[in-house]
Design a protein that fits this description.
Elements (H helix, E strand, L loop, with lengths): L8 H10 L13 H13 L1 H11 L15 H14 L8 H24 L7 E10 L6 H9 L6 E12 L2 E11 L5 H9 L5 E11 L1
Antiparallel strand pairs: 1-3, 1-4, 2-3
Helix pairs in contact: 2-3
Length: 211
């Protein structure tokens, strides 16, 4: 199957099943097939992809994150109730459509009012995926990771990471981070990481999106 149309539930379901016991769509290392499918999903569901990557950056903090404005259980119950009420496949009943549209507009208006009451929004942030490449297959990747995460910077939050095979037994570190754009220079951050000359050969920004 070609995983290109993510407007279909079947596409997401079949891709999820395929990846149940795989790290990549084809083979044992990343290929252009992974890139094409990744870009297709990013293009068709940019907001979800941004949210998912952002939340993934807090993986190490899941157990300590605050409840928020409403308890998680209450939010889940509300979502379940809304799913029962909403017809995702459309309705021929014009009155139901009008009521749904009215409810939507009311919620949008309430959200806009709440946002306006809070005043200026938070500082602009970016979600970044950084590749850190070692010298060879003998480089201690745990030491490399520890040295990277030891870098502390106001406006910088380290997120989830993985070691990605690049060939010949060599793996690179791929790590997510969130930065406040006005406080953190990515070029300076890369330079700091590359100062670990015993472990780091080079760094590259693999992906970046605004939050």
């Amino acid at each position: 199957m070609s995983f290109s149309d993510f407007s279909k539930v079947e596409t997401i379901s079949e891709l999820n099943d395929l990846l149940a016991d795989k790290s990549y769509i084809d083979g044992t290392s990343p290929t252009q097939i992974d890139v094409v499918v990744y870009k297709a999903f990013q293009k068709q569901a940019p907001n979800f992809a941004r949210w998912f990557n952002h939340i993934a950056s807090f993986t190490d903090e899941f157990d300590t994150l605050p409840e928020g404005n409403a308890p998680a259980a209450a939010v889940a119950a509300e979502l379940a109730e809304e799913e029962e009420d909403v017809d995702f496949f459309g309705s021929d009943d014009e009155e139901e459509d009008e009521a749904a549209e009215k409810l939507k507009q009311e919620r949008l208006a309430a959200y806009a009012a709440k946002k306006a009451a809070k005043g200026p929004g938070p500082a602009a942030k970016s979600l970044v995926t950084l590749d850190v490449k070692p010298w060879d297959d003998e480089t201690n990747m745990q030491d490399l990771l520890d040295n990277v995460k030891a870098i502390k910077w106001d406006g910088l939050v380290w997120g989830a990471h993985t070691f990605v095979p690049v060939g010949f037994g060599i793996k690179k570190l791929q790590i997510n981070l969130v930065v406040e754009d006005e406080k953190v220079s990515l070029a300076d951050l890369q330079q700091l990481i590359e100062e670990d000359e015993d472990h780091v050969q080079s760094t590259d920004i693999a992906a970046m999106s605004k939050l």
